Amino acid sequence: MRHSIKAYIHKGETHYIAECMDIAVVTQGKTLDETIANLREAVALHLEGEDLAELDLVPNPSLLITM
Predict the structure, then answer these.
(1) What does each C-alpha distance from 22 to 3, 50, 57 come to in angstroms?
(2) Which residues, in sequence order, are CB contacts of 27 under 8 Å at separation 6+?
């Protein structure tokens, strides 16, 4: 079981872009703080109602962000 969800943030032309490697979540923001907040919200919405064990995740996994 995985304890974290890996995500990468990189600078686009006008926004920062965050993409999860373990689940199908991509988001963006004008600032790093906004991008991270959007990523947390998008991940929470994606996992809502999902059986985390089926996704090989522990309950309440952390986000591991690399830039």
Answers:
(1) 11, 14, 10
(2) 17, 18, 35, 38, 39, 41, 42
Please state, in angstroms and rounded to a whole number, the distance separating the CA atoms of residues 12 and 49: 32
Structure tokens at 19: 């993409």
* Alpha carbon 37 to chain centroid, angstroms: 10
Q: pTM for the full model?
A: 0.92
In this predicted model, what pLDDT tens digit does every residue of 15-47 receive, in sequence order? 999 999 999 999 999 999 999 999 999 999 999
Rounded to an integer, what distance in angstroms lies between the CA atom of residue 39 and that of residue 48?
Answer: 14
